[in-house]
Amino acid sequence: APLAAWAGVLHALGRSARWRTVFAAFCDHPDAKAEARDHLALAQSLAEAGALEEAARRLAPVFEGEPENASAWALSARLREAAGDAEGATLAWTRAAEGSSGLEAARCWRLAAAAWEASDPERAFGLLGRAVDAFPSFAPAHAALAIAAERTGRHDAAIRAASSALSGDALAAPLAREERLAAAQHRQHLRGR
Questions:
Q1: pTM, whole model, 2 decimals?
Q2: Sign of torsion, CA 140 131 166 122?
Q3: Distance between the two ends of the chain, CA-based, in angstroms?
Q4: What are phi and psi of 9, to 5 degrees?
Q5: CA 114 to CA 167: how far, in whole Å?
Q6: Which of 39, 70, 120, 157 is spaced 20 to 30 Å from 26 by Cα?
Q7: DSSP 3-state assignment of 138?
Q8: How does pLDDT run along the chain (193 residues), one tens digit per residue?
């Protein structure tokens, strides 16, 4: 308890580097009974500080205690992306999506697909379909699905997805201005075929 109290004071004072040191000692102490959320907080802070390998190592106790923790899987995915591990990132984003629901799940499926949109559009198409299923109003998933559908020869599906991205039904998670313009141009191009 004294380590946790000390860490709390350091956190309140904004002494992040020192907080990480003391909080790590708390998390590692056998009598502390640190919870998965404590290990996750430490891993997130380490990642923000650029200590990516240590952050990844600190996720192990989170997965031991809460193997379906979506926030931990999302952090793992970002760490794997930073390390250039597209396959590992996709697997981690998939686990994050499976542990989430609604818009958050759709965002995770969208991120799982991102690494494959250019190199494996078939795989991206499948992942983006899961994003749309998870949250049908997620316009960015529809826009990316339109491109993946077109790249895999599914022209009718591409037109439907581009139209869905631009529809008023997608207001819950609208497209950025640039995404909206790209989707409109893509839909117009496909209709011209």
A1: 0.83
A2: positive
A3: 68
A4: -65, -45
A5: 22
A6: 70
A7: strand
A8: 688 787 878 788 888 898 899 899 999 998 888 999 999 999 999 999 999 999 999 999 999 999 999 999 999 999 999 999 999 999 999 999 999 999 999 999 999 999 999 999 999 999 999 999 999 999 999 999 999 999 999 999 999 998 888 886 655 565 666 665 666 666 666 666 5
Q: How far apart are CA 94 and CA 115, in angstroms?
A: 13
Buried b (16+ CB within 10 A) or exposed e, 90-102: bbbbbbbbbbbee
Asked if 77 contacts 100 with a C-beta cutoff of 8 angstroms, the reply is: no
Taking the C-alpha atoms of residue 72 and residue 16, their distance in angstroms, rounded to an integer, is 20
Cα 89 from Cα 136, distance rounded (Å): 24
CA distances from 143 to 24, 150, 176 (A): 42, 11, 11
- Among 176, 164, 167, residue whose Cα is nearest residue 133: 164
> Chain-centre distance of CA 137, in angstroms?
18
Structure tokens at 59: 């996720």
Q: Quick one: tokens of 169? A: 């039904």
